[in-house]
Amino acid sequence: MTLEEAATGLDVVLVAGADVRDGRPPRPPVARRLAELGLRAGAPVRIQNRTSGGGAIVAVGEDRIALSRDILRAVRVEPASAPTPAPGGRATQPGPERRDG
Fold first, then answer.
1. pLDDT for 21
2. Which residue has the higher pLDDT, 20 or 89?
3. CATH assignment of the domain containing 57
4. Which of 41, 71, 81, 100 is least enclosed by beta carbons within 10 angstroms?
5. pLDDT tens per residue, range 14-71
6. How far is it, in rounded angstroms, from Cα 97 to Cα 81?
7. Which of 30, 34, 63 is nearest to 46 (CA)?
8. Quick check: is 87 in a domain?
9. Domain for residue 95, yes or no?
C-alpha cells in the first residue's frame, strides 16, 4: 500500500523509498530530500492529519512533515507489527523510559 492509502493514525513502516506505483523512480533530489527528512526504508511513520488538497501531515519519530498527495502516492508502506500482548491479554507498547532520582 502507499502512504496515501494508509488510514489516519495507523502506524506503518516504509517498505521502500519513494517508488511510484508505475515503477518509475522519483526524481533523485526528491528521494534524497525524503531520506534527509527520515523517510527511508524501515522508518516508522504515522499519518497525523489529512489536508484538504489531498496531502497529509506525517509523524516520523518526533518530527512532523507535510507531504503532498504526489509524495504520499509514491511512498510504499506496510502496517507496523502489532503490539506485543502482555500477561492478562492486554497489549503493551513501549512507553517513556523511567529514570530514578
1. 43
2. 89
3. 2.30.30.90
4. 100
5. 886 554 444 555 567 777 888 888 888 888 999 999 999 999 999 998 999 999 998 8
6. 21
7. 63
8. no
9. no
Domain count, the chain: 1
Report the candidate in 76, 70, 31 with the shortest Cα–Cα distance to residue 51: 70
Cα within 13 Å of Cα(74), Cβ side = 19
Residue 71, amino acid: I
The verdict on residue 63 lying in a domain is yes
Question: 9 to each of 32, 76, 91, how far by Cα in Å?
Answer: 26, 16, 17
Give the end-to-end CA distance of the chain in Å, rounded to a whole number: 45
DSSP β-bridge partners for residue 76:
2
Count CB-CB contacts under 10 A for residue 81. 8
Please check whether residue 5 is in contact with residue 58, taking contact to mean a CB–CB distance below 8 angstroms.
Answer: no
Is residue 33 domain-resident? yes
Burial label for 18, CB within 10 Å (0-12, 13-18, 19+), is buried
Instruction: Find the domain containing 35 and state its range.
Output: 11-82
